[in-house]
Every structure is written in C-alpha cells, then in structure tokens.
Amino acid sequence: MKSIRKDPVIRIKPGFLFQHKYYLYPDSFGMIRLKKKIVIAIDGFSSCGKSSFARLIARELVYIYLDSGAMYRSVALYGLQNGLIRGKIIAVEELISELNNIHIRFRIEKGENITYLNDENIELQIRGSEVSSVVSAVSKIPEVRNHLVMLQRQRGRDKGIVMDGRDIGTVVFPDAEVKIFMKAESEVRAERRYKELVEKGINSDLDAIRRNIQERDEQDINRDISPLRQAEDAWVLDNSHMTFEEQMDWFKSVLIKRDLLLKS
Ligand code: DC
Questions:
Q1: Which distant-in-sequence residues (6+ apart) come within 8 Å of 217 by Cβ?
Q2: Does the pLDDT at position 172 exceed 50?
C-alpha cells in the first residue's frame, strides 16, 4: 500500500530552520543521482521557462525547488493589498518596515508550486498584471533584496536545492556547483507567458504581455543593484525551440561535463 504523505510545506520566515523532507515533490522521480548534494542556480530573462525547467530538475533529483521571483511578487502584492503601492508610487520606507510581517510559504498542491502570503493562497494574484507591472520596481529596493537574499541563502544552506531568479548564480549563491543562464526568443517567451496565464484562467492580452516582458527585461538588466547578468561560469541554455526532454538531456550533459553524475 502506498504511504500517504502530508502536503509538502516551505515556510519562509527569518530565522526559521527549514526541514527538507516536508516540501519535496510528492511525485519526485529521483531518476538522476549525483555524487554529492549541490546547489543549482538558474537565472535568466523573464518567461524563459526557468520555473518549469527548475521544477523538472528538482523532481528528477528529488531536490527542493525555490521560485525566488514569487518572493519578490509576494512583497509587491503585500504592498498593493496594504495601500503601500498605489499606481507606480511605492511608500518605500513603510514597505521596508513591514518586511518582517511578510511571511511567504510554498506548498506543493497537486504537483503545483503554490505561494502563500501570511496563510493566504496568492498564486493567481501574484501572476496577474497588477503585480507584474510593479514587481520590477519593488525588486529594485535594496532593503527588499537584502531581506529576500538572506532568506534565500538560509534556504540553500543545506544544499539539495534548485533556485531560479535573476541573481542566484551571481549574488545569492556565487559558489553554486551548477549555474544555468536561460534565454529564449522574445516572441516565444510572450506566447509561453500568454498560454500559461490562459491555462491558469487569468485574462490576458498578448500585446500587453509583449510590452511587459520588454519592460521587465530592460529593468532587470539596467537596475543598479544585482542586475540580471550571466555568471562567468554559467552554462547558457537557449530553449526557444527545445522540448522539456531535450532540455533535460542538455542538463544531464552538463552534469557529466562537471563530473557530478553518479553512474548507476
Ligand atoms: O521570475 P519572475 O518573473 O517571477 O520575477 C518577478 C520579478 O522579480 C522580476 O521583475 C525580476 C525580479 N526578480 C529579481 O529581481 N531577482 C530574483 N532573484 C528573482 C526575481
């Protein structure tokens, strides 16, 4: 008889000690075995498929997956919900003073990574256009970055983690054993984003998504603090015309080149 596992939970609170066993994917495949426990940092432009790829890798390795973008989105949503962000105006000092009241958790429900903000399921809200249009500005606030980077490092302390974002290989884990930098053609990215939102039941407009992707690329690359950069030792993956299977084959080839794969 199959044993019943509790819903896996990630709690992200300052000072909270994380327990790996609670938030591994219940359907982890565990098909790839490594010689040692490592950190895998995946960075790249928005809507490149970083999250999907990171999730797949986490499942194959039976590793934790952490979506750092969802953490920035959660802070942005908290600001919107509490009147600290109105239009493009952010009450920066107030938002900073609220950081310790923003408790972000991830749960894996029916195979999906679901984000909770102070016990509210906010997965749909953080993917919508309201949050998307302010999150880059929120992610430029140094105190917000420092706070979230501290939480991300806590999470990766015991390794066995795949984290995706913009600065994971350059700032959060400069010593990550495997760094991947993902790219894809902008039209492909816009279409993927559109499809993803439609599948989640979020009303979307392809032209608006194109503009948002372009704006976010510019903001991510040009911001003063932790801009999106390819780490010197990152492996570059352009997945514009690749299936998930091809991406996994590419990933395995990286593991072989890094002599990390345990031959069975
Ligand atoms: O990956 P995403 O689109 O969900 O990220 C949302 C925003 O957060 C995006 O504008 C860039 C920012 N971000 C960041 O600055 N650093 C990270 N490590 C992850 C995301």
A1: 45, 46, 186, 228
A2: yes
